């Protein structure tokens, strides 16, 4: 019975130490990876990224607003004092009057 309990204790100790070594190595690797990532990010220059994004979004917004304004202006109704509108109105009025004269 003492041999069996001794084997159990040895197995527990060996598994505990193996798991402890694995977790320590894993923690060291994760810390090393995090440090490497921090160093890489520190080397990169991200200070002007916000300005770049602001300029790009601003240009996109300007183009969209310009398209919307031009579309709204093109869909607006014609004014009656527009020369082209006056020409069409006078031409149609003349044709209707000629039709009345011919009909009479």
TrEMBL record:
Pfam hit, one: ISK_Channel
Keyword Membrane: yes
Compartments where found: Apical cell membrane; Cell membrane
GO biological process: potassium ion export across plasma membrane; regulation of heart rate by cardiac conduction; regulation of ventricular cardiac muscle cell membrane repolarization
Record-linked InterPro entries: K_chnl_KCNE (IPR000369)
Molecular function GO labels: delayed rectifier potassium channel activity; potassium channel regulator activity; transmembrane transporter binding; voltage-gated potassium channel activity involved in ventricular cardiac muscle cell action potential repolarization
Parts of the chain that traverse the membrane: 49-69
Chief location bin: membrane
Keywords annotated in UniProt: Cell membrane, Ion channel, Ion transport, Membrane, Potassium, Potassium channel, Potassium transport, Transmembrane, Transmembrane helix, Transport, Voltage-gated channel
Keyword Transport: yes
Family according to the record: Belongs to the potassium channel KCNE family.
Protein name: Potassium voltage-gated channel subfamily E member 2
């Amino acid at each position: 019975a003492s041999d069996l309990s001794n084997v159990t204790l040895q197995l527990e100790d060996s598994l505990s130490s193996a798991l402890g070594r694995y977790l320590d190595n894993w923690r060291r690797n994760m810390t090393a990876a995090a440090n490497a990532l921090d160093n890489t990010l520190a080397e990169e220059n991200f200070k002007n990224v916000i300005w770049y994004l602001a300029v790009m979004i601003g240009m996109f917004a300007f183009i969209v607003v310009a398209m919307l304004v031009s579309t709204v202006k093109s869909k607006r109704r014609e004014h009656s004092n527009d020369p082209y509108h006056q020409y069409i109105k006078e031409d149609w009025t003349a044709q209707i009057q000629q039709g009345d004269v011919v009909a009479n």
